[in-house]
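Deliverable D5.2: sample structural annotation.
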Amino acid sequence: MDIRDRVISAFRPEEGYTYSHRLPFRYSNFIDGMAWVGMLCGAARIAQDWELIELTEGYLINLLLVGPDARNFGPTAKTSPEWERSAHMPGYSYKVKPQSFAGPAALRWAVSKGARVDLSLVPDVTRTARALCLVSPLFGLLVKHIKSLRQHVNSVMFAHLLTDSNTPSTMKFLEIKNPVYQYIGSGAVVDTDFVYPNTGPWPAKDWPDSPSVPEGDYTPLCSLVGQLLS
């Protein structure tokens, strides 16, 4: 299967449009679906890929519908027993954890591209995004030397995505061989048809020149997002 087919196989529309970040499909405590599927949804809207639009919007709508602070969801019989049972979707349970920044930012960007998802239950992180953009020139300088800051690279990138602003020159090194960040940084993808190493559910945030790790069985959603944005 090609990358697009593999990503499509990670959705189960017959089970509430659920999504698995690993293949073959499995239910897990994965908590970043709003962020990564939100990015795929926005990219699918840009590319007018209607099959992906249906899958991603179905997932995002139900993620918000199933219950407050939902990070993942699925049929109760197939998910972890500690998950909350949904009062809004009988027969489904969900993983509870309040959203931080990346998920709401990606979802709001997807809606700005035409995604039909109700934002009334999503925190408005626009002011946080603007603040992150203001400090991003200094952040780009410091992140090269302070390793603890590297966990925030994706948030700063998504802040620029949400506010539709180019990244500063100090962060341009993060765009090398990284089509998703190239699109966020300047609106143009240089490395078209690029395939990210299969090192996690969102390898765009891997630190440049980090030691190689064994590839896993993660759904290649990030690679597909990069190709749709090209």
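Annotation notes: The two ends are 21 Å apart (CA to CA). The chain has one domain: 3-229.
The annotation will be released with the project's public dataset once the embargo ends.
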